[in-house]
Amino acid sequence: MTAIATAAAAPQNLGTSLPLQDRVCLVFGAGSSGPGWGNGKATAVTFARAGAVVIAIDIQPSAAEETRALIAAEGGRAEAAACDVTNSAQVKALVDDVAVRHGRLDVLHNNVGITSMGGILEESEESFRRVLDINLTSAFLTTKHCLPHMLARGQGAIVNVSSVAAIRHTYPYPSYEASKAGLNQLTVSTAMQYARQGIRANAIMPGMMDTPLVYKQIAGHYQDVEQMRAARAAKTPMGRQGTAWDVAQAALFLASDAAGYITGVCLPVDGGLTCGIGG
DSSP string covering 41-99, please? Predict the structure, then answer.
């Protein structure tokens, strides 16, 4: 019997210790909103450890610089940049500058997001629009300005950080849930439109995560921090919260050639939360 097909050659860096070697990765929201490790900060460091040249971007210059310094201290390669992701001109100028100086743009990671607690009656119109602008329009703008550079090279990976709140109710914050649901479908739409042009787009949906943003923007929903920790852990089938490193490892996988045949996926990183009952 003769073989009718042969296996395709493995991507050059698949399975190596440096899956993002020499790739230029833009991480929007690379700073932390407080002490500790946020998703963007952990992802920027993880990308650098995987061999990438990381552009650590945050609206707060000091936060971006902190992440850059952490990477440099480990011998990695990184630059810090400040940018308001709701400002199209700022985003375009930054993206174009990076693409010109480095001659390529391989990975776009969108990690910017805020919450606004309160139901529809409690939340103001201004707050609702602000949450959508920061959480959703920002990803539209970064994608819009990165795509031309990716398309010119016929390849690129986009990884958006969404939330399980995109597909199930978690807290009374409809603007956050709506923005993340929109981000999921923006991801899918991008993936489908540009799949044949070498562009992959996927989203990560974190569940109950122990990150600085939670303490800053959600803790007020509980009597105290310990009650919050216990309640969030109890919601999760694994019985504990996740960390920023869980999100970072998922982002590394989706950005790398190991996920070369994966696009349009909204991946829960949630300890089984979206499979459980209640919560």
Answer: HHHHHHHHHTT-EEEEEESSHHHHHHHHHHHHHTT-EEEEEE--TT-HHHHHHHHHHHH
Q: Which residue has the tokens 């910017």?
A: 112
d(CA 78, CA 95): 15
pLDDT in tens, 114-149: 999 899 999 999 999 999 999 999 999 999 999 999
Give the C-alpha distances (Å, rounded to integers) separating 64 from 58, 67, 80, 236, 257: 5, 5, 5, 32, 27
Q: What pLDDT score does 218 carry?
A: 66
For 168-177, the pLDDT digits (tens) are 998 888 999 9
Sorted by where each starts, the structural domains of the chain and their CATH numbers stand as 24-269 (3.40.50.720)
Catalytic residue among 173, 176, 215, 261: 176
Q: Which helix (H) or strand (E) holds 268?
A: strand 266-269
State whether the Cα torsion 114-118-121-122 is positive or negative: negative
For residue 10, name the pLDDT band (cuts at 50, 70, 90): very low
Distance from C-alpha of 53 to C-alpha of 99, rounded to nearest angstrom = 12
The three-class DSSP label of residue 36 is coil
pTM given for the model: 0.91
The answer to whether 204 and 139 have CB atoms below 8 angstroms apart is no
DSSP letter at 9 equals P
Give the separation between CA 279 and CA 163, rounded to whole angstroms. Answer: 15
**In this predicted structure, what is the pLDDT of residue 1?**
37
For residue 176, indicate whether it is catalytic.
yes
